[in-house]
Write a sequence for this structure.
């Protein structure tokens, strides 16, 4: 008998398309893939390489009316492609399970979590009603959902992203399957929650003896968890081997390109020059900024406040020609600060001063600020008007701020060339571009009115690693050419280090640490900053195998019901009664030259 749990032989997947030019699209081209029992196999590649389509073929979930599948997918000697839908449904969930990329769209919004878990158990196991209830509760306990008996009665929208992914894992492992497919299972999660989920998957699959096929574009994750690696490009597996072989001695040019594109955190203090801003006037000053949101109907959290304190007493300065990195998990208030600067969000109190602007903003002041500040949003497709051609999208801010401009075509061509796009593209629509190209268009539009500050809100999160590298190089070149300033909002700490001069860390609306990037990355003083840095995987198995990472427990609390006292105390490794009661000293204190940290947590590292 073969030692492989699953063997893929000459798999080819084609889709019928409405295009008259090419009515057949080959998504996967005759790949061969072996998955040994008890191992973790990595399948890596950029978007569109065929990874997820391969996983769906294994599960028998491809639409048969528009999809043709040839070859063999042998599971324990049985070709899955020859099975009927009824036979496949008996295998799915019991023998082979899958954790999908987006848990919210994978869970039924109108059924409670308990009911959805029970559906899986009822289909594959013969259990009494009482046994179903106990098994459902134990599954939620297994994936570390607190108060599992109560939470079985909740609906998907009442859980955070990390909790929903845990529930998906519980469903996938409910019947102790032999093979688990994790398809980009942590892509949408913050780095600390990502580490929690990955460690949970590793621990559970190891304890159950489950084989794991891990599909991702994150080479750091594969380096930490995979035994063997398969690299996909344009529907083909271009390189395969053990993790140590692939990472230490890649052979294919595409594998080398992927590895070279991955930003790596460097904690070495040497060869760094800290920017001296002591004698400079700030380009923009934010002083004691507070932002609140009012909830009209707070149905689901009865013990919570109707007010969200999104930003609490934040002060910072950005200087000409520098990149200021703002990092933290989702919900920490990073984007709210960016939107407050351009008045897309109205602050409750505080001052935002741009050069010589007055303290109180009039409508003219707001227009002046928007003329001097550009913004690149997180989703490049959602921030472009699908009905407008690229030329008009780029010209829109110019027509607002410089209505008498001439030679519009020349301006657009210059901006497109500046961001690495061809002038002929100006007559296309947004849907005719790739994700990386759309992000370049957003940058061109943000630069159109020649701003002195560019707010970059998660500009790389929707892009593949090689495209991320291109955009980072583009931003660096633009800054060198024009001395423009950036406010870089991101949860990607490696990219922030690569681009930034100074870095601030946010948690639940507050700044908890900031300073030069050299000090923040080489000597983090706040336990949260240390946990963030420890959560970033390194694309080198030899290094990953030796690292003992600090895994921060829990998730960032709801802003509607924040912890009393120190905002970090609910996840702090060394909380005290003073932290809870708020008797500890609060606020930032300068520990070393231009390195500030929250007083309550300075000794908790």
């Amino acid at each position: 008998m073969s030692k492989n749990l699953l063997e893929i032989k000459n798999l080819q997947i084609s889709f019928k398309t409405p295009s008259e030019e090419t009515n057949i699209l080959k998504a996967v081209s005759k790949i061969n893939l072996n998955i040994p029992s008890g191992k973790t196999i990595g399948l890596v590649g950029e978007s569109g390489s065929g990874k997820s389509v391969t996983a769906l073929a294994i599960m028998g979930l491809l639409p048969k009316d528009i999809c043709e599948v040839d070859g063999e997918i042998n599971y324990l000697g049985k070709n899955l492609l020859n099975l009927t839908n009824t036979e496949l449904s008996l295998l799915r969930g019991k023998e082979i399970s899958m954790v999908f990329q987006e848990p919210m769209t994978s869970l039924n919004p109108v059924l409670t979590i308990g009911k959805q878990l029970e559906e899986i158990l009822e289909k594959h196991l013969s259990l009494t009603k009482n046994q179903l209830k106990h098994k459902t509760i134990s599954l939620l306990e297994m994936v570390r959902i607190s108060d599992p008996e109560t939470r079985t009665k909740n609906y998907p929208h009442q859980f955070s992203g990390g909790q929903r992914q845990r529930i998906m894992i519980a469903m996938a492992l409910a019947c102790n399957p032999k093979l688990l497919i994790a398809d980009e299972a942590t892509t949408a999660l913050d780095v600390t929650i990502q580490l929690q989920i990955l460690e949970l998957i590793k621990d559970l699959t190891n304890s159950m003896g489950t084989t794991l096929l891990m599909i991702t574009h994150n080479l750091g994750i594969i380096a930490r968890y995979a035994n063997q690696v398969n690299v996909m490009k344009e529907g083909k597996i271009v390189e395969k081997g053990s993790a140590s072989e692939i990472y230490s001695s890649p052979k294919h040019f595409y594998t080398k390109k992927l590895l070279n594109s991955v930003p790596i955190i460097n904690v070495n203090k040497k060869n760094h020059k800290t920017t001296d801003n002591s004698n400079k006037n700030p380009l923009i000053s934010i002083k004691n900024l507070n932002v609140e949101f009012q909830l009209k109907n707070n149905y689901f959290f009865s013990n919570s406040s109707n007010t969200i304190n999104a930003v609490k007493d934040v002060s910072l300065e950005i200087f000409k020609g520098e990149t200021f990195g703002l990092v933290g998990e989702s919900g920490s208030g990073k984007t709210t600060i960016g939107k407050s600067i351009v008045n897309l969000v109205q602050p409750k109190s505080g001052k935002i001063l741009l050069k010589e602007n007055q303290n109180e903003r009039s409508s003219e002041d707001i227009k002046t600020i928007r003329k001097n500040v550009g913004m690149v949003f997180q989703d490049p497709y959602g921030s472009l008007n699908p009905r407008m051609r690229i030329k008009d999208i780029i010209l829109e801010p110019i027509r607002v701020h410089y209505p008498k401009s001439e030679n519009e075509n020349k301006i657009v061509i210059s901006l497109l060339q500046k961001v690495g796009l061809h002038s002929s593209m100006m007559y296309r629509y947004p849907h005719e571009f790739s994700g990386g190209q759309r992000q370049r268009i957003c940058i061109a539009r943000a630069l159109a009115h020649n701003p002195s500050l560019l707010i970059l809100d998660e500009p790389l999160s929707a892009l593949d690693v090689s495209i991320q590298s291109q955009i980072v190089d583009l931003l660096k070149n633009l800054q060198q050419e024009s001395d423009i300033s950036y406010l870089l909002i991101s949860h990607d700490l490696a990219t922030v280090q690569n681009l930034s001069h100074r870095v601030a860390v946010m948690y639940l609306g507050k700044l908890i640490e900031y300073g030069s990037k050299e000090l923040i990355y080489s000597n983090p003083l706040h336990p949260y900053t240390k946990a963030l840095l420890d959560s970033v995987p390194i694309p080198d198995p030899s290094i990953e195998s030796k690292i003992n990472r600090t895994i921060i427990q829990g998730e960032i609390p709801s802003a509607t019901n924040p912890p009393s006292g120190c905002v970090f105390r609910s996840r702090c490794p060394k909380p005290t009664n003073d932290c809870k009661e708020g008797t500890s000293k609060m606020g930032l204190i300068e520990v070393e030259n231009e390195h500030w940290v929250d007083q309550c947590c300075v000794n908790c590292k």
